[in-house]
């Protein structure tokens, strides 16, 4: 698995004088098959039909297309392949959709070509459908007894004037429904998303990992990134696992739809402390039991009443704003308020940096920084979003706020910890929505994000070839246990080395997955981590087996130390050389950078075979009266000066037979010998009859040389491809001739 290759479709890019890259068929892999990702969806609810809708993401630059096209980095700017419309599949949009106990299976190619090859313009949108580079599966539901989809889904198909059907070119790879779809698949194009005002739950995915360190970039077709998103809204219980990786547990929840709905109804019930919390309504004003997060609601303030939410007043939302105001005076000694003031102080600094460096940040010069207001501050604070209006999304990030980014983000992380503490208050004082998602008296879902920087295990990036979604239960999930934090395992790999890894295994004693030379790594999330063998096999047949001793986080030092090495247990490795390199080089560590927490295990490259050389050493004392001054290799006449710092040389196995080795001392005496056999030699590293038999001294004519040669011997240490051999020739006789 070296990347991707497309055998059926020539993805050629028209070249022109502006420097657009000319490409033949896209060859990002050496695999003859078009790579696909699999999507499986299971309905475990006894009382509800479900109706999945898959939509692709948008971007001004599509790295997946650039990588598939093998665009050189120097030409990336001229070949952006923008994708400014969503492409959508209504997978089972009529009748019972996926009925109770039913399932659906779909395969997605990387790309579907929309325009003829000779008409492709990499600067125009909609030349291809990129199915992998970011997308969503939104799952609708309706009572099974009705035998029809929710009216909002039917309206989404038939009453969206900007949505239209597209027809890819002939023979291009297409999505294929293997099971459970209703009717033939149609690909729709839409400049707009479906929106929150739908009875649906959002899940997100990205297929294939981009390696932008390569030139051209490459795609790893065995990597998936996914999450069930409750950051903006909660509607339905969904759990997700990777396809083709049963070691990874689920994110999301396996709660039944009825229990989920009961928790939602309890949250907004007339006697609830959160009564009056807004709910979504559709475009005809029909109320949906779908609850928005504070991030969703507060980000809109102070705009007019949103048409997709129940009418104001929203007493619980107003209470959050009132609490914020009450906490600002330093005279308020409530510990919760002290944390809010600390958080606001960071946001004040971030806003100041935004205003002062608006131009330097590359923001829109035709506009001015947004003016500060209470609503603006509260919206950013609850959303944990930086002030970068009219700027690129990656500008003025919170973690890069002056002072807060210093000393490895020390102050930023302290403030974020206080924010997390407020979010997880058991009474929901700061964020009732987080209580709804995580609280034991409500939905009780620990494996989802309830807010944008939630520390829960919500997003996963692991090895896999697709995703599995289960609604309302566990059926269909190969693992069935909650996921653990992912760990990125990187192993040393040199394509030019004689020995290199060719396979790896996750919880397998025999490696079963091919190593991708462009991605010398794999990602794991393992519930029973201490009993999981991680294995690597090199092309010499050497097996390396290790375990990770604990769940993350690991020590922070990104280097080998006793503490970081303790993360890795090398004892399962039986091969001595493999075990030694593991013990001496493997380690694990955690990197915290702003909001990103990444866990790593570093494993060394494959053990290299010993070189097929005999090391010939001759005795030399710098203070000796008699010492060697010249030597010869396969020459009876010494012709090379002796280096006092390196009194020896390496003799390749292929030159041993018939090779005369000569030495000359400073008294003019000549010493000659040959090595009588190919290694391995006897294992004893000293003079014995057996080790001396390695040396033929018959070429010597003077007694002193013969006496010296009588002390010469050869030996071998180690075994197999790690065996090393040496010959020792004594120093010259110190007596005068």
Please describe the topology of this protein:
Elements: E1 36-43, E2 48-56, H1 63-68, E3 86-90, E4 103-109, E5 111-113, E6 128-130, E7 135-143, H2 151-158, E8 164-166, E9 176-179, E10 187-190, E11 200-211, E12 218-228, E13 233-234, E14 238-242, E15 251-252, H3 257-268, E16 291-292, H4 294-298, H5 315-327, H6 335-356, H7 374-383, H8 406-423, H9 432-438, E17 459-463, E18 466-471, E19 487-491, E20 501-506, E21 513-514, E22 521-524, E23 534-538, E24 543-548, H10 562-565, E25 568-569, H11 576-585, E26 587-593, E27 596-603, E28 613-618, E29 628-633, E30 640-641, E31 648-652, E32 661-665, E33 670-675, H12 689-692, E34 695-696, H13 703-709, E35 713-717, E36 724-729
Parallel strand pairs: 1-18, 19-27, 28-36
Antiparallel strand pairs: 1-4, 2-3, 2-7, 3-10, 4-9, 5-6, 7-11, 8-10, 11-12, 12-17, 13-16, 14-15, 14-18, 19-22, 20-21, 20-23, 23-24, 24-25, 26-27, 28-31, 29-30, 29-32, 32-33, 33-34, 35-36
Structural features, described:
There is one protein chain. The protein has four domains: 234 residues, no CATH class; 146 residues, no CATH class; 117 residues, no CATH class; 117 residues, no CATH class. By secondary structure, it is of the alpha+beta class. The termini are far apart. The relative contact order is 0.09. The radius of gyration is 34 Å and the shape is elongated. Strands 8-10-3-2-7-11-12-17 form an eight-stranded antiparallel beta sheet. The protein is 17% helix and 26% strand. Helix 5 packs across helix 6 and helix 6 packs across helix 8. The chain contains 13 helices and 36 strands.
């Amino acid at each position: 698995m070296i990347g991707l290759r497309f055998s059926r479709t020539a993805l050629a890019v028209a070249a022109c004088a502006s420097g657009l890259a000319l490409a033949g068929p896209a060859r990002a892999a050496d695999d003859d098959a078009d790579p696909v990702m699999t999507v499986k969806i299971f309905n475990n609810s006894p009382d509800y039909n479900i109706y999945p809708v898959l939509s692709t993401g948008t971007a001004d630059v599509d790295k997946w297309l650039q990588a598939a096209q093998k665009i050189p980095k120097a030409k990336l700017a001229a070949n952006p392949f923008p994708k400014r419309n969503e492409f959508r599949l209504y997978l089972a949009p009529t009748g019972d959709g996926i009925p109770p106990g039913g399932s659906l299976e779909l395969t997605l190619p990387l790309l579907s070509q929309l325009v003829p090859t000779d008409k492709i313009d990499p600067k125009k949108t909609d030349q291809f459908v990129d199915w992998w580079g970011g997308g969503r599966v939104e799952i609708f539901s309706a009572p099974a007894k009705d035998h029809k989809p929710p009216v909002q889904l039917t309206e989404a198909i038939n009453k969206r004037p900007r949505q239209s059907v597209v027809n890819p070119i002939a023979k291009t790879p297409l999505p294929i429904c293997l099971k459970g779809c209703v009717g033939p698949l149609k690909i729709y194009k839409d400049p707009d998303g479906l929106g929150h005002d739908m009875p649906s739950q959002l899940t997100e995915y990205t297929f294939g990992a981009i390696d932008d360190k390569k030139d051209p970039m490459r795609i790893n077709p065995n990597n998936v990134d996914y999450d069930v998103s409750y950051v903006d809204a909660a509607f339905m219980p969904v759990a997700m696992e990777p396809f083709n990786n049963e070691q990874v547990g689920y994110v999301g929840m396996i709660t039944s739809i009825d229990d989920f709905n009961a928790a939602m109804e309890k949250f907004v019930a007339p006697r609830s402390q959160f009564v009056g919390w807004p709910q979504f309504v559709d475009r005809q004003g029909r109320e949906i039991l779908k609850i928005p997060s504070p991030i969703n609601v507060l980000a809109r303030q102070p705009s007019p009443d949103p048409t997709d939410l129940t009418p104001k007043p929203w007493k619980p939302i107003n209470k959050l704003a009132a609490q914020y105001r009450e906490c600002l005076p330093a005279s308020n000694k409530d510990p919760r308020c002290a944390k809010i003031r600390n958080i606001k102080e960071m946001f004040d600094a971030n806003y100041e940096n935004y205003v002062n460096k608006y131009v330097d940040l590359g923001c829109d010069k035709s506009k001015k920084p947004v003016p500060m207001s209470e609503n603006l501050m509260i919206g950013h604070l609850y959303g944990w979003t930086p002030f970068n209006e009219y700027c690129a999304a990656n500008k003025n990030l919170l973690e890069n706020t002056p002072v807060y980014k210093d000393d490895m983000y020390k102050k930023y992380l302290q403030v974020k910890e206080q924010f997390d503490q407020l979010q997880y208050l058991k009474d929901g004082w700061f964020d009732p929505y987080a209580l709804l998602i995580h609280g034991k008296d409500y939905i009780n879902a620990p494996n989802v994000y309830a807010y944008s920087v939630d520390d829960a295990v919500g997003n996963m990036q692991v090895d896999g070839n697709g995703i599995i979604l289960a609604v309302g239960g566990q059926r269909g999930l190969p693992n069935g246990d909650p996921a653990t934090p992912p760990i990125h395992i990187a192993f040393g790999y040199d394509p030019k080395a004689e020995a290199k890894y060719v396979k790896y295994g996750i919880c397998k004693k025999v490696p079963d997955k091919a190593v991708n030379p462009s991605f010398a790594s794999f990602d794991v999330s393992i519930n029973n981590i201490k009993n999981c063998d991680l294995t690597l096999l090199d092309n010499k047949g050497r097996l390396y087996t290790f375990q990770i001793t604990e769940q993350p986080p690991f020590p922070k030092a990104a280097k080998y130390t006793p503490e970081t090495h303790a993360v890795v247990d090398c004892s399962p490795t039986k091969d001595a050389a493999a075990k030694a390199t593991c013990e001496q080089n493997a380690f694990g560590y955690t990197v915290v950078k702003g909001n990103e927490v990444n866990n790593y295990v570093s494993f060394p490259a494959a053990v290299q075979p010993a070189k097929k050389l005999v090391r010939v050493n001759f005795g030399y004392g710098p203070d000796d009266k008699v010492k060697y001054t010249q030597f010869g290799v396969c020459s009876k006449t010494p012709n090379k000066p002796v280096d006092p710092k390196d009194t020896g040389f390496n003799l390749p196995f292929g030159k041993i037979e018939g090779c005369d080795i000569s030495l000359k001392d400073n008294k003019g005496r000549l010493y000659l010998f040959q090595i009588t056999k190919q290694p391995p030699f006897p294992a004893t590293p000293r003079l014995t009859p057996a080790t001396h038999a390695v040396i033929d001294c018959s070429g010597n004519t003077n007694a002193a040389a013969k006496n010296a040669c009588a002390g010469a011997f050869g030996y071998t240490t180690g075994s197999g491809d790690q065996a090393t051999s040496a010959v020792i020739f004594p120093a010259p006789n110190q007596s005068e001739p």
